[in-house]
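Hey, can you fold this one?
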Amino acid sequence: MRQESILRKILRIIALILVSVIFLGPFLWMVFTSFKPLAEALKLPPTFLPETWVPQNYVDAWNSGPFLHYTKNSIIVTLSVVALQLLTIIPASYAFAKMDFRGKKILFSLILVTMMIPAQLIFLPVYLMFSKTNLINTYWSLILPWASSAFGIFLLRQRFMQVPDEIIEAAVLDNTPTWKIIFKIMLPQARGTVITIALLNFIGTWNDYFWPLVMTSNDDVRTLPLGVSMLKSTLDGIHWNTVMAGNVILILPIVIIYIFAQREIIKAFTYSGIK
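Sure. Predicted structure:
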């Protein structure tokens, strides 16, 4: 029995190492390549660690285009989308979890169906609609289509349903307004889930390449992913070391936010049941 236990631990460690290599390997390769000189980045066979560290790659990537402008656009669009989604997700989730109204199940089912519709399927009618209303090349064309999230409503509803009905009924008997019930009772108990939804939406919007590509035709409201993708065309040939430096700049805010929010994310998926 003891030998079997030791063997299981060894196999578990090996599995963790393999999973870590699969997920962390490309990320570490990108980071290390971003510090290599061009000749070393193109060297065959490649080397994992840089023989010569070149932080100048980050300066070259940042100066290759209006990256400060792209970053500002990304911040505006991402924070606006997250704020709008929370404003729509929170009351909708409460309504589906704790209120009774005609067509509740049908409406919730329709919302879940929208999770199966990819953005590539709806971009053309949305583009035509925005084109007729002169919203192309504006922040609104990047914000309004994502003003709510079906997955966010689903996830927060599941968490709200775990709050005992007796608490809500007691608050109603005390003539507590609905908005107070949501913000004083429900949200404190669903803090981890709300943080998780905000973070997932932040990541999705910050990394979005397709939608800004379709909805913009100039640099006025273009976001950071488009700026990074244009490194290939703005540089003399493809300088993969500088391209990798641009990618690190792109994902750095996400990594920092995730480090601080990972505990809340784990709690949210641990305690959110499916009902």
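Residues 100 and 202 are 31 Å apart (CA to CA). Let me know if you want another pass with a different chain boundary.
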